[in-house]
Amino acid sequence: MTDWDLRKLRVLQALDECGTVTAAAERLRMSPSAVSQQLSALAKQLGAPMLEPYGRRVRLTSAARLVLGHAERVFGQLERAEAELAGYLHGEAGEVRVAAFATAIGGLLVPAVARLRTQAPGLSVRVVEAEAAEAYGLLAAGEADLALSLAVPSPAAGDPRFVRYPLLSDPLDVALPPGHPLAGTAGLRLADLAAEPWIYGAAGPWRDITLGACADAGFVPERAHTASDWSAILAMVAAGIGVALVPRLASAGRGGAAVIRPLPADLPARRVVAAVRTGIEQAPPLRRVLAALEAVADTVKPD
């Protein structure tokens, strides 16, 4: 297979566009003899003459025009590659695959993608919903470039394969049934709800966060009902069968009949982090997506 020399092809292109060896040499800042040598070397390499006499001048042979037709398409493709690479290096092109848990998708990732559509329309973000353990698995396998997860104790927490970036401290509010006797209490404390029936998941980060917040308040919550979907949890609270801690990202605009109350004296919160594989953290598209996530996180403030 022929090893194509792009420099020699550029010389051939210049001769075609300029018409004479002398003019081509001036454009390329070469001597006429150097231009002739390059074209002779190209002819020898390809096994076909590139030039033929034409009066006192030379012109391209049919073989040269065939080669040049393909070369020009190659040059065009390389120019597009250079433009795309420039966009990539500025974080304006490429693709970033993000694995994230459900409330982070709605509360952080979707607004970030909306920003990027304006700031970097050539940058593509692909989203897959995944809880923390699965998200880190996708990241480790190279099937995701960035993961959004909760900062809870896990085997991945100290894994040197990942670099983590704190994004958000998401306040935890309490969801109470309508008409609950403590719904209007000023200075409501988490400990005031120690005797209530609680709703939370059987396993996973949210169970750990709920148990941790209640432990900090001095009690172990009685789990009366098990659920992990926020719509289901809020519907159960609204029906009066229990209370629940709800992150503000999850409850915003979807409390329904449930009464959502902050806990300013306790200030329970869950921490949301972004993670990328060690070694690719400086990739411009990743930095651009992280910057958009950080900008959105800055707009989510505790009341």
TrEMBL record:
Pfam families: HTH_1, LysR_substrate. Residues 4-61 form the HTH lysR-type domain. InterPro entries: LysR_HTH_N (IPR000847), LysR_subst-bd (IPR005119), WH-like_DNA-bd_sf (IPR036388), WH_DNA-bd_sf (IPR036390). PROSITE patterns: HTH_LYSR. The keyword Iron-sulfur does not apply. Keywords: DNA-binding, Transcription, Transcription regulation. Transmembrane segments: none annotated. It comes from the Bacteria. Signal peptide: none annotated. Belongs to the LysR transcriptional regulatory family. PANTHER family: LYSR SUBSTRATE-BINDING (PTHR30346:SF29), TRANSCRIPTIONAL DUAL REGULATOR HCAR-RELATED (PTHR30346). This is LysR family transcriptional regulator.
